Amino acid sequence: MAIDLPTARRLWRFLEPVHAVTYFSDETREALSAAGYRGFWMGYFAARAAPLGPVGPEIVTALFYNFAPSHVARAIPDAWDFAPPETALKVRQDAAVATLSRMLGDGAADAVDRAVAVLYPVAQNADLGGRALFAANAALPWPADRIGALWHAATLLREHRGDGHVAALTTAGITGREAGVLHATATAIPRSVLETSRHYTEEEWESVTARLADRGLLDLSGAITPAGRALKAEIENTTDRLAAPAYARLTDSDVDDLTTSLMELTTAVVASGEIPSVTPIGRGLDEVG
Fold first, then answer.
1. Among residues 179, 168, 167, 240, which one has the least CA distance to residue 12?
2. Tens of pLDDT along 262-285?
3. Comparing C-alpha atoms, which of 277, 271, 259 is closest to residue 105?
4. Cα dist. 65→57, 175, 239 in Å?
5. Packing angle, helices 5-24 and 226-243, rounded to 10
6. How many CB atoms lie within 10 A of CB 163?
7. How crowded is the C-beta side of 232, counted as CA atoms within 13 Å?
8. Fewer C-beta neighbours within 10 Å, C or N terminus of the chain?
9. Can you name the residues that pair with 279 across neighbouring β-strands?
10. 5-24 and 26-35 helices cross at what angle (nearest 10)?
11. CA distance 28 to 89
12. Do 224 and 231 form a contact (C-beta atoms < 8 A)?
């Protein structure tokens, strides 16, 4: 069946914290450091880019979309001299399994199995066309253990949606660096969160703000305008519309079962307190419902 766009967004909000433990857990940071990667950002870029192979900074900048090219280039390709992509792949999966096992405990096995039973055919059959990060992750073998399979499914569908979001932004004529500023102003994410995580200088932030103001998307003070809100809503709607076909094979019963099982699992992840309330993705990923 064709699921509606709010359902596609709701499922993403359940899946995103499951995937995102790989960015916030001590297990991941410690494991990437032990593998030889120098600092958080080298580990981040190496782990997320590893499914692509030993690529250079241009490909990572293009596909991740909103990072400063200089930020990427400080980590890639040097990361591959410290440890190859194969190491990063094993480290990120093992650490994610360790983190989720700790957060979910022994009582979540049934919910995990029910979620994976629905997510496996969804992620296996989602269209690869135009979705390079999703395709690279889809080429990886499915983990044999239930927690690994859950994290892999969440990662696949997260990157599938992310590739679609990049397509929506480019169609709207919003560059990666403009996307960060527009997103912050539209969602009231503190500017400092994006400046730190996406390496904007004050000069670049002001320059991007001026470009968006020239298009009528922000006003001269940097506040979002009605035209800016309309464009942001269009981008998010397009992202949902591009994500929804992945779930087309699901029945109403599948969606209900998946929602119930993911609610249980995401509640446990959020209860750990390790998913920040404000991230570069947005506010409220630490909320369930």
1. 240
2. 999 999 999 999 888 777 775 455
3. 271
4. 11, 8, 15
5. 90
6. 23
7. 21
8. C
9. 282
10. 50
11. 11
12. no
Tokens of 213: 């103001």
Q: Indicate whether 68 pLDDT > 90.
A: yes
| Residue 1 DSSP class | -
CA distance 267 to 287: 8
Q: Render pLDDT for 129-178 as a digit per residue (tens, 0 to 9).
A: 999 999 999 999 999 999 999 999 999 999 999 999 999 999 999 999 99
Output b/e per residue, 195-230; b: 16+ Cβ within 10 A. bebbbbeeebbeebbeebbeeebbeeebebbeebee
> Among all chains, which residue has been given the structure tokens 């700790």?
102
Q: What is the DSSP letter of 50?
A: G
The single residue listed with the structure tokens 């192979």 is 53
User: Which is it for the CA torsion 99, 102, 108, 110, positive or negative?
Assistant: positive
CB 47 within 8 A of CB 88: yes
> What would the pLDDT profile of 196-247 be if each residue is shown by its tens digit?
999 999 999 999 999 999 999 999 899 999 999 999 999 999 999 999 999 9
Give the integer Cα–Cα distance in Å for 212 and 35: 41
Burial class of 161 by CB neighbour count within 10 A (0 to 12, 13 to 18, 19+): buried
SS3 280: coil
